[in-house]
Design a protein that fits this description.
Elements (H helix, E strand, L loop, with lengths): L2 E7 L3 E6 L4 E6 L2 E4 L4 E4 L3 H18 L6 E6 L2 E5 L2 E2 L2 E8 L3 H6 L6 E11 L8 E2 L1 H6 L5 H24 L2 E13 L2 E5 L7 E5 L9 H4 L5 H13 L4
Antiparallel strand pairs: 1-2, 2-3, 3-7, 4-5, 6-7, 8-12, 9-10, 9-12, 10-11, 12-13, 12-14
Bound molecules: thymidine-5'-phosphate and aspartic acid.
Length: about 240
């Protein structure tokens, strides 16, 4: 498989064409942004951590019946994926209140939610990724009823799988964001699952092992990413 010209550069990844129309080549970057790119920086080693951790979760999820875009690793910070068309709706699951739900609804950070709360957001930096509901998604023709149902079902199943696996490594899954893509007529899980897109708290100390360390200038950012990778995959870097 050959890596050809760049198709797109996002905030955290570059997407390249390949000599196979059904495959994209993804390169994970060390660039970090927060608050819709108002805050910018670099997290050394992040591209490698996010690539390896995403590959780990995608393989595990595929084994558990969650179809996703991962095909194979190409290098420490590159993977080959199915060439999906990304659905312009992010799906968030929250087990514990943190981040924007606290600001929006006045819920205290750390409050355990009575059940996993699913939210949809519109993928739009200009608009600040606003929370939307199923009517908005249908009215804006971002996804069909069937696609919404599959995304919700997958999101809850992924939450159950990740939560259980992470707890074995003393990590609490506070929340996460996933994205889906269309491939050969089906929506499948796409994008990444990493410390950029999840909140991981140490189960004993409640220490943050994710991008909140960067967002909130807590220090120890690189170390937290390495620690999360090591605990989850058993591998360092
Ligand atoms: P939030 O509390 O800021 O809404 O974030 C919820 C989860 O989604 C958290 O795990 C971080 C992740 N997330 C992204 O992956 N990308 C984003 O653009 C935002 C805002 C959050
Ligand atoms: N990735 C998002 C951004 O820059 C937000 C975040 O992860 O906090 O803008």
């Amino acid at each position: 498989m050959q890596k050809l010209e760049q198709l797109y550069e996002g905030k955290a990844k570059k997407v390249f064409k390949t000599d196979n129309d059904n495959r994209y080549w993804i390169q994970y970057k060390d660039d970090a942004t927060a608050f819709n790119a108002q805050k910018k920086g670099t997290i050394a080693g992040k591209g490698v951590v996010n690539n390896k951790m995403s590959a780990y979760w995608f393989l595990l999820l595929a084994e558990r019946g969650i179809e996703n875009h991962f095909v194979e690793l190409k290098s420490d910070n590159e993977m080959l994926v199915k060439a999906v068309e990304i659905v312009q709706t992010e799906v968030i699951i929250r087990n514990i209140a943190a981040g924007s739900i606290c600001r929006r609804l006045g819920i205290e950070e750390g409050k355990e939610l009575p059940f996993p709360i699913l939210e949809f957001c519109l993928k739009s930096d200009e608009l600040g990724d606003p929370v939307i509901n199923e009517d908005h998604i249908l009215a804006m023709e971002l996804a069909t009823k069937e696609e919404i149902a599959k995304m919700k079902d997958y999101a809850h199943k992924i939450n159950d799988i990740l939560k259980e696996e992470l707890l074995k490594n003393d990590i609490i899954l506070v929340d996460f964001k996933i994205e889906f893509g269309r491939y050969q007529g089906e929506v499948i899980l796409a994008d990444e699952i990493s410390p950029d897109t999840c909140r991981f708290w140490d189960a004993n100390t409640m220490e943050k092992l994710d991008k909140d360390r960067f967002r909130r200038d807590l220090g120890g950012v690189e170390e937290a990413y390495q620690e999360a990778l090591k605990r989850i995959t058993g591998e360092k870097k």
